[in-house]
Design goal:
The chain is built from 11 helices and 10 strands. The protein binds acetoacetyl-coenzyme A (CAA) and flavin-adenine dinucleotide. Belongs to the acyl-CoA dehydrogenase family.
Length: about 375
Amino acid sequence: MNFEYTEEQLAVRDAAREFAQAELLEGVIERDTEARFPHEQIKKMGELGFMGMMVDPKYDGGGMDSVSYVLAMEEISKIDASASVAMSVNNSLVCWGLEKYGNEQQKEKYLKPLASGELLGAFCLSEPEAGSDATSQKTSAELNGDHYILNGTKNWITNGSTASIYLVIAQTDAAKGHKGISAFIVEKESEGFVIGKKEDKLGIRGSDTHSLMFTDVKVPVENRIGEEGFGFTFAMETLNGGRIGIAAQALGIASGAYELALAYSKERKAFGKPISQHQAIQFKLADMATNIEAARLLVLKSAWLKDQGKDYAHASAMAKLYASQVAMDVTVEAVQVHGGYGFVKEYHVERLMRDAKITQIYEGTSEIQKIVISRSILR
Ligand code: CAA
Ligand code: FAD
């Protein structure tokens, strides 16, 4: 067993840390207040290779391993979880899904600009009445000669208005249940494709979350990913890896809040000494550090399993379940360590606390992770 990072992994982590400090920190409070997407910053992240990190260089990706990806996600998430969710969706849902299951033509046309960061992608599974219960897809895709006709509504789509390429899951044969679901690549300019309202959210306010409406949208047959009926497996396999990215996001939110609380506890004085010298604060810091380390081990283990080509579905569900709980616990305590200052925007921890909550909801709620884990244990 080896707990050391490689030099390459450390270089990626340091590059992400420097980028986050230099480019994401400034303006993060204003972007959150105004619910403004970090356009310029995401463009730079693409130029630096953060948007297609694990994609083969022959498709314009970074050719890095999942451990490097997790390290970069943690660093970006410490500062701006709205930027990191755009990064996570593009890397582990859109690029991974296309590289693993797309054909050569689809990779040339769509994966290359997505992996290089030239274009942004979105992953569209959830619907108004199909969130956790993802097999209940109502969006339909009907074959009509050399194209499909898409009708339906997708909800809560990250990168909803900023994406150019949308991976859309739809029902091609309702009688077959989840085996009648297929996956498609839809271009933003398609006629009949309308971007709906932007959600006004508790956290990750800089991320653009939209509903999407499809009315008789023509999608060429060559834009179907895999065979008809493969769409649900496509979505589930993609989410197995996506959950590693969100677990790393949760880890980053927790470690960002912990670092702020640690520094503040050494500066703030009460009763004649820094609050870090009061045992109640020391114990909070000890609990935070321990829980973050445990979460980090689960996140790294799931990334390592993926890199080794081993089964990681169960490990990624555990990593997301645990890291998201740690993100909630640590951010709440970080606000407490800051006292009244923790309750105002200037000190960042209140935003991290609001951002933490979503990690227990998207890419499968905590209850869904427990379903995935328990089914795997009992199988
Ligand atoms: N990996 C691979 N295959 C899986 C799987 C997994 N984790 N989970 C289920 N499957 C397969 C099953 O093996 C089964 O296939 P077969 O019939 O061929 O054996 C098929 O999927 C159906 O599975 P179930 O019978 O278990 O279906 P179910 O309806 O009882 O439950 C579920 C499935 C696990 C609850 C699933 O619906 C689920 O994961 N729901 C959560 C949806 C989700 O995570 N959405 C995230 C949207 S994207 C997002 O959120 C992005 C973002 O915010 C940034
Ligand atoms: P529901 O499924 O209605 O769940 C409500 C509650 O019931 C939850 O607590 C849930 O855990 C619980 N529950 C449901 N079923 C069970 C069960 N069987 N056992 C126990 N408890 C259960 N989706 C996308 O496809 N693409 C995206 O890019 C995307 N981005 C998102 C961004 C944001 C900001 C948000 C809020 C959501 C996003 N989602 C996205 C959707 C997200 O994945 C869903 O919100 C999530 O899967 C939960 O679905 P739901 O909201 O319909 O809740």
